UniProtKB/TrEMBL annotation:
Keywords: Membrane, Transmembrane, Transmembrane helix. It comes from Caldiarchaeum subterraneum. The keyword Transmembrane helix applies. The chain crosses the membrane at residues 125-145, 165-187, 217-237, 257-274. This is Uncharacterized protein. Gene3D superfamilies: Winged helix-like DNA-binding domain superfamily/Winged helix DNA-binding domain.
Length: 304
């Protein structure tokens, strides 16, 4: 994982202060500072946190923690400065996170599943396999159920128009990328000059780095869209069993809302992990995509 070894854009003192206020990030910083160099597995075991939480917070702390050639984590110059300040102000025993309750861990894992997307960003192989596989599964279910996907709305498509189906699906992914990137920038509140943006672009690997990041984001988004295949999947079961479960509009709309709700939470987790945002802001980005989807579908002309 090379992203921690790259020189990130310079953070302000206010941003650094925000980072170490979080108890998990503070514990990670203190643990790395104490050990000097430490691997991901040892760090996770030392703190008693999940893999998803560890990698999510490490991405947030790229200004303070980096990786060496052996993939061990160590403090940067800024990280060492913050570490010394924290150890000077705090007594010992501050670097262990108090384990949360099983109920809290389960709630976090279900509604903010960082563990689902951390493998995509930590392994190029996983990203290159999981993303296309998720797209394939969703397309198969949609076509088998004779549904189309446009933004976050799955609707019946009879007869199936394959070119139009493909156009709407591609539009969905392109729009998702655009909304996530644009509104993540707006919700972050970190407005920068053009020169700072260019410097960050070059520091992240230029065009090659941008394409790699876009590929990972697309793979993560493909996984987040999978719940939208719930209603089309039930439509396939209905047709095979010659039942009429979805003929009840209340049931169909309820299932559609459920699938969209799950997708919103997954998109929020993607945004938080990828864009290094607090969950409140990432949820705002996900809800923006949801409302824009409904707005576009509301004004979409009816067939025929």
């Amino acid at each position: 994982m090379n992203e921690f070894s790259e020189q990130p854009p310079k953070m302000s003192d206010e941003e650094l202060l925000w980072l170490v206020r979080h108890k998990v990030r503070r514990a990670i910083l203190l643990a790395v500072g104490e050990e000097g160099r430490i691997g991901a597995t040892a760090l996770k075991q030392k703190l008693g946190i999940s893999t998803g939480s560890l990698y999510y917070n490490l991405r947030q702390m790229s200004q303070l923690i980096t990786q060496d050639e052996r993939k061990s984590y160590r403090l940067t110059e800024d990280g060492m400065r913050i570490f010394k300040a924290l150890t000077a102000q705090s007594g010992s025993g501050q670097n262990v996170v108090t384990p949360s309750s099983k109920a809290a861990e389960l709630f976090s894992a279900l509604f903010f599943p960082l563990w689902l997307f951390s493998p995509i960003y930590e392994s190029r192989v996983v990203a290159s396999v999981l993303g296309p596989l998720a797209v394939f599964v969703l397309v198969f279910v949609l076509l088998a159920g004779r549904y189309e996907l446009f933004l976050l709305n799955a609707s019946p498509m009879t007869p199936v128009n394959h070119p139009l189906f493909a156009v709407k699906l591609v539009t969905t992914y392109v729009a998702g990328l655009a909304v996530i990137n644009v509104f993540s920038f707006l919700f972050s509140g970190r407005f920068r000059t053009f020169g700072a943006v260019v410097k960050e672009f070059r520091g992240s690997g230029g065009v090659k780095g941008l394409l790699a990041e876009t590929g990972k984001l697309t793979s993560a988004m493909a996984v987040a869209f999978l719940p939208l295949g719930l209603v089309p999947g039930i439509a396939v079961i209905d047709r095979v069993n010659q039942s009429s479960f979805l003929s009840n509009l209340f049931v169909r709309d309820t299932l559609l809302i459920l699938s969209q709700t799950i997708t919103i939470f997954l998109i929020s987790a993607v945004v938080a992990y990828v864009k290094k945002m607090k969950w409140q802001n990432s949820m705002g980005v996900a809800l923006t995509f949801f409302y824009l989807s409904h707005l576009v579908n509301y004004f979409k002309p009816l067939p025929g």
